Amino acid sequence: MSAIAGIYHLNDEPINLEHGNRIMKELEKYPADDIQTWHSDKVFLGCHAQWITPESIGEKLPYYDHERKLAITADAIIDNRDELFERLQIKKSKQKEITDSELILLSYHKWGEDSPKYLVGDFAFMIWDEKKQQIFGARDPSGYRMLYYFKNNSRLTFCTTIEPLLSLPYVEKQLNENYIAEFLAITGMIDTVDARMTPFKNIDQVPPFHSITINGERMNLEHYGTFMPKEKLKLKSNQEYVEAFQDVFQKAINSRLRTHRGVGSQLSGGLDSGAIVGFAAKELQKENKTLHTFSYIPPKDFVDFTHKRLMPDERPYIKKTVEYVGGISDHYYDFDGRSSYTEIDQYLDVMEMPYKFAENSFWLRGIFEKAHEKGIGILLNGDKGNSTISWGSAIDYYAILLKRFKWLRLIQELHLYSMKTGGARFRLLPFIIRKGFPFINQKVAANKALDLPTLINPDLAERTGVFSKLRDYGIDNSGWLTSQNIYEQRRIIFENISTWNSGSTLDAKLSLRYKLWKRDPTNDIRVVRFCFSVPEEQFVQNGLDRALIRRSTENLLPDQIRLNQHVRGVQGADWLHRMIPDWSMLIEEVKELTNDSTVLNFFDEEVIRSALNNSEKGLRTESMSDPDYRILMRVVIVYRLLKKYFERG
């Protein structure tokens, strides 16, 4: 893992090494095992390296291949090494010592600009092709590694983080109104639909699943692949689907265990993280290695107000998984004294942009801190599992059966579902009807994702044309996806919008700060394509939702976890409880914001004042989903960003 940087002059002007060294100096705030640079007359490349995998120890980056006249700097872990060894015909005697950056370079030499299509893993890289006199680079499909750049008529400058670019004399710091407009107009967790944008007008990023080619003044960004499989999978039995899933998921897990340091995993009481821990621990036990798990719990003085089917403190279920799986050293942290408010400046410093996950921010960074203290090199997680390995909503699938007139099958499923979850057999029928035929109850159908109102100032929305742009991506004026069909939503999220961009930004930059690599096998492109290829009836059957992962973890997870359809963990239920000491400061900061006419040009003042008025009546700590509280947090985060970079920068 590395922070990478570089400068490419598009004309004959020689490289100013002072500029390259300034970028590298800015990266010194991150820990490093090695810092190296390479340059020619027109190109400067740098690497601020953190050695995570065995092959990366002592790796020379940037690396210049004299035979092929290619230079590379890379921030990458490549997961399909064996496949590439075979395709590239690399001798077995050399395979252990070859680095991931060399594999990327050899792939480029063989396949040219098609090379990213052959890579599986988390990566961002830039290659200087001396023969073609061009720069070529790429970012992985989910954007787990960052690649920002500035380009004008004379030079391209790139870096893993933004602030080193802002340190250069030829990069003017200007606010990108279009970025702020999308961030405020979208009510869900997506930051922007245009993954090329950043909050800075002169700095863009290579979007996930894109490559970049610069040859002279010509620049080309290309979407090089798709998450969608070429065809649906057709197997003979349920057991064959289970075995096929176990095979692809185990490969995704195994390829993410490569580190000369410790292996850790985030663990809740649910299926996704439980499955990862089960598959990973089984593999590590073969080498007598321990898996460290990291779990967040509420503080001791938190009083549980949630419904009996919700579980803010998941320790009882976590411990069942730990005891059943074995080979685990489990760690629990309440991060007492931290709140969503106290974390804002830390997150803006790390991310260099606003964020929408404030309700969970106090533990997300904390887990990285604790994993770093334990000497972890790889931290597994299952953030994307709901859309891949544990896909399968019973109600939505039953709505499909209803619409297809498969009523006998539907009745059988409802009977089995009620036996497993309790309650009357047909209690779900009204919800199923509304899902299948939303026009029957437009009021319910229009209640999109219990989320915030749009926060954007109407004048800014009109000036930037933001809602017209969002409609092209399937988002309407409510600020969320137009389609009510979760299958269509899932496809849009994977194909049309780089929805993982914000979460990936956080993971990449926290990884860099704490010198460990967070990795998600549930979003391995091989796993994603497999899950999209599986028939829907594999995900919901015999009264089980999320049926494929439940069947695939038999004898791997305890049945209390594997077959649990009664209790659901709810993380962040204590976020308002933690805000009690900070509540008055939050209110005062929002009031300060409402007195700043310049800042109010970005926000819908009426929405903020309404939320402020309701919130001044007192903090109701049990109202964890109250949109007014979330509005105040979100506007303060944007307000702080504007002050940090633009009002006093």
Strand content: 15-25%
Instruction: Tally the beta strands.
Output: 19
Structure classification:
alpha/beta
User: What is the distance, rounded to the nearest whole angstrom, between the alpha carbons of the first and last residues?
Assistant: 30 Å
Plain-language structure description:
The strands form 4 sheets. A 6-stranded antiparallel sheet has the order 2-3-1-9-8-10, with helices on one face. The protein has a 6-stranded antiparallel sheet with strand order 4-5-6-7-11-12, covered by helices on one side. Strands 16-14-13-17-18 form a 5-stranded parallel sheet, sandwiched between helices. The protein has 649 residues and is α/β, with parallel strands linked by helices. Strand 4 and strand 5 form a beta hairpin. It is built from 26 helices and 19 strands. The chain is 39% helix and 15% strand.
